[in-house]
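Hello Y.,

Per our agreement to keep a running log of every chain we model this quarter, I'm adding this entry. I've kept the format consistent with earlier entries: sequence first, then predicted structure.
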Amino acid sequence: MAEQLIKVAPGAPNVFGEAAAGRLELLPLSVEQYDRMIEEGILPEDTGVELLDGVLVRKDRGDAGGDPMTVGEAHAYVVKQLAYLGLRLDPARLHLQTQQPVVIPDAGEPEPDAAIVLRPITATGKPRAADVSCVIEVAGTSLERDRTTKLRHYARGGIPQYVILDLRERTAEEYLLPDPETGTYATRTVHPAGARIRLHLAGGEGLEVAIAELFPVA
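Predicted structure for the entry above:
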């Protein structure tokens, strides 16, 4: 995936192929180096990549069966519905952000499709994993990555609840009880479209959401 970020001139050596063959070592970026590149204008603020496992990876927001390089209509629709949920929160205490970075110390800086941040909406600076009670990914072409790489990052950050909204099946996969040491969650529950899910807020509070209302009309 990282190779897609660089156009290799004809006849030039392919460094990614050499790395895969064990002939070349690629040095990963730290979260601090990545942030500095953005601050100094080396990377644009609204870049099309995110930092995962020290590698710049293209964001994947395609619909199920669609083009991963294109933002799908269904994907965009669900993200808008998630954004509306923020209107049901008290912005003086917490807020919902969409497609913005969450810092996972020593791991990466993913940009989930939605995250509930336990800080006032006026707070500045990127939230860290400890500031987040729930992350949500809208999964079409990104489903495998969301179930593996993204899950590992969120679990390593100790984020209490991770939800994957599966565009193909119109279900919500809920992961709870993270283990930062192993990068896994202890429980996985699949909620059908006709069910409701309780998104974690602060202090045991929750936000009840009808799953069917998040997806486009079938």
